[in-house]
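Take the subject:
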Amino acid sequence: MAFSSDTHGKLEDAQAQIARLREQVETLMKDRVTPAVADFAGRAESAVHSASGAVRDQAEVVSGRVKEQPLIAIMIAAAVGWAIGRVMR
């Protein structure tokens, strides 16, 4: 019976240590990881917003140039299409 009692005591000690480790991991997640992920998400959102603004601005510039010089735009598009077609063969 002493063996069983000793084994039971070790099992309870291991379970208590696991519970403490779980609490420590949860605390670390809450205190460090979650804020870091939130900060990263905020930075990523800001970068996407900036990039979309830049793309939108460039699209407006290209659109304006196409409206100003449609014939040149058609020739450029045809040349690019021809070049892509040659590369794809």
